[in-house]
Amino acid sequence: MRHTNAQLAKLEERLLALPAENDGMLVSELDGFVAGLIIGPEIIMPGEWLPEVWGDEQTPNFANLEDARATLDAVMAHYNRVALGLAKAVPAYEALFDRDPINGELMWELWITGFQRAMQLRSDLWRDLIESDDKEVVASMRLIAGLCDVGTGQSKLAAATIAQLQDIALQTIPDAVLTFNAHTKRRVAPANRSAVPSGGGKVGRNAPCPCQSGRKYKKCCGAGASR
C-alpha cells in the first residue's frame, strides 16, 4: 500500500520530536522494523515492540498527552498501512529508504537495521527459516542475514561479494519481504495474521484496543484502518 507524502511527513515529524537522547527510530528504520514484525513467524503485540521504537527509554518524556497520542497514532497508522498492503490478495510492499544528503542516492542500511531489530525479538524462530524446505525463503534469509552483517560492519564475506550484495540490496529487499510474507501466510491462518493483533472477532471502533494500550481501538491500532 502506497504511503502519501502527507502521511510520511507527519510520521517523520513525530519521530523527530522524540527526545534526541532516547535514540528512537527514524522513518526508514521504523519501516524495516514494522515489515519484520508483520511478516515474522509469530505475532508480537504492540506493548512489546513499541518500546523499541521509542529508543532507550520505554516511555518517552512526551511534552503532553496530546503529543503522545499524535506520535502513537502516526506509528500505528504506518504499521496498519504496511499490514493492509501485505494482506491483499496480491500483496504490495514499498520499502522506505533514506537518501544520501550529499548525492541523493537511496540508502538501505537504516531499513535493514530496523528489520534486524524486529528479527531479534524472535531470533530463534527466524533462524529456523534457514532450514525451510522453501528455496526462496532460504535464499531470502541468506540475503537478509548478509545485509545485516554488511550494515553493521561485521561481514566476513569477500569484498567482491559484499559489493555485490550492496548493489542488489535496493531491488531485492522488497522481494525478500514479499517472500517471507507468502511463507507466513501459508503457515498461519489468515484470521490470526490481521493487521491488528486480536483475540478473535471484529473489534468495535470505540472498544478498548486489543493491544492493551488502554486506548480505544479507533485511536490506537485502528488508526490507519479508516485512512
Q: H/E series, N to C?
A: HHHHEEHHHH
The tally of helices reads 8
Shape: globular
Beta-strand content bin: under 5%
Overall number of strands: 2
Overall pLDDT: 85
User: Percent helix among the residues?
Assistant: 40-55%
Structural class by SSE content: mainly alpha
Give me the side-by-side strand order of the main sheet. 1-2
First CA to last CA: what distance? 11 Å
Using the CA coordinates, give the radius of gyration.
17 Å
Low-pLDDT sequence parts:
190-201
Largest sheet: 2 strands, antiparallel
Layout of SSEs?
Elements: H1 5-16, H2 27-39, H3 46-54, H4 65-86, E1 98-99, E2 106-107, H5 109-120, H6 123-128, H7 135-151, H8 159-187
Antiparallel strand pairs: 1-2
Helix pairs in contact: 1-4, 2-4, 2-5, 2-8, 5-7, 7-8
Could you provide a short overview of the structure?
With 227 residues, this protein is mainly alpha-helical.
How is this structure best described in words?
By secondary structure, the protein is an all-alpha fold. Helices cover 53% and strands 2% of the residues. It has 8 helices and 2 strands. It has a two-stranded antiparallel sheet with strand order 1-2. Strand 1 and strand 2 form a beta hairpin. Helix 2 packs across helix 4, helix 2 packs across helix 5 and helix 2 crosses helix 8. 34% of the residues are buried. About 5% of the residues have low confidence.
